[in-house]
Amino acid sequence: MILRLTCAAVIVLALPALAQDRAGSGTGAVMRGLDKLSGETVDVEIGIGESQPVFGLDVLLYDCRFPADDPTGDAVAYVSVREDGRAQTIFDGWMMASAPALNAVDHSRYDVWVLSCRLD
């Protein structure tokens, strides 16, 4: 009985490490911006640690991860978003390409979300 509990504990404790090994990191991300008033969209490439303007927002990319076995699969990016010219952050967190509304930027005019990770 003790051996079974010990084996189960080892497996449970090892699962997070296994999950981390299955994700790859990109060199940047492709983000899409939407101007809700005009309907205009723009795709912007952002490198890790870089900031790029997307309409009236300033988007800073910290990390972009993807499934290691499928680099073109679901991207997950950690970003910080501010309005141009303002110090207050309006969004800081992870975005998922497959579910952009799950953790979305809350802005009245603009929207921005991750499309994919760059691998170059």
Provide an overview of this structure.
This protein is α+β, with helices and mostly antiparallel strands and 120 residues long. It has one domain. 17% of the residues lie in helices and 48% in strands. The chain has one helix and eight strands. Strands 1, 4, 5, 6 and 7 form a five-stranded antiparallel β-sheet that branches. A hairpin with a 5-residue loop joins strand 6 and strand 7. The termini are far apart. 22% of the residues are buried. The N terminus is likely disordered.
Count of separate structural domains: 1
> Structural class, judged by helices and strands?
alpha+beta
Please describe the biggest sheet, giving its number of strands, its sense, and whether it closes into a barrel. Answer: 5 strands, antiparallel
Q: In total, how many beta strands?
A: 8
C-alpha-based Rg, rounded: 18 Å
Relative helix content: 10-25%
- Poorly predicted segments: 3-19
Portion in beta strands: over 45%
The best one-word shape is globular
Average predicted confidence as pLDDT: 85
Which assembly state applies to the chains in this document?
Answer: single chain
What is the first-to-last residue Cα distance? 51 Å
Separate helix tally: 1
